[in-house]
């Protein structure tokens, strides 16, 4: 079970209440769970996605370790341009996805 991180910015207080019930808030808007299962991570992100689609305010970023992804990191975004991790000759870069 990998480390999971969610970063929130300019979102309603309901996100904070929900996220602190399943994760530790280590800084304002930054939540971590050292051993969150994929099933729990998916359920939490589904709730975040439903709320964000209904409220349409702020941004959320979900990051977790995925050994199949470049740099062994997977990123999901709501409200900001999506990013992917790119391995450029051993240097990891965050690249905005182009539509």
Automatic annotation (TrEMBL):
It comes from the Bacteria. InterPro entries: CRISPR-assoc_prot_Cas2_sub (IPR010152). Gene3D superfamilies: 3.30.70.240. Pfam families: Cas_Cas2CT1978 (PF09707). This is Type I-E CRISPR-associated endoribonuclease Cas2e. It comes from Plastorhodobacter daqingensis. The lineage of its organism: Bacteria, Pseudomonadati, Pseudomonadota, Alphaproteobacteria, Rhodobacterales.
